[in-house]
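haha ok so turns out i had the wrong file open the whole time. this is the CORRECT one, sorry everyone. sequence first:
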Amino acid sequence: MAWTAPPVERTQQLGDLGTGTERQMLEGWLRWHRETLLAKCAGLEAEQLVRTTVEPSNLTLLGLVRHMAEVERWWFRRSFAGEVIGDVFTGPSDGDEGLDGVHAADAERDFGLFRAEVEACDAVAAGQDLERTFASSYGVPLSLRWVYVLMIQEYARHNGHADFLRERTDGATGD
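then structure:
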């Protein structure tokens, strides 16, 4: 039996994001966008997750999942926390940030790596002051707050891509 992306049980509801502390809202919006990306994949078999459907783009749903694991790692763990760790899916010089090199046979593993990376990123940010800064690779000071806002916009942009990919795969639409 072919592996199928599992259903997503929403832990974050949009209606709960209208009030709360700044931290609650940043974490909540990021969680909602993470879950949205996985929801776009839910119910699809591995072969569908690696299909390019919006020509001439080579984007795939699995590529987006892999890419977001790389982006999470870069900003939360490598940049903010200063961890000296390699890439999740790519080599340091290929520049594709997980988008390329997708294989249906790796889909289940790649989803697991994404989830593990999200957990690790949440762990490094937990309890940290949103004002805590670090130097970007260009030497510019950035805050943890900036990382949250960046990640929310990164997911929002790629969730838009995922909308098109999913609709072209099986006609499914929705958030």
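Residues 144-170 form the longest helix (27 residues).
again sry for the mixup
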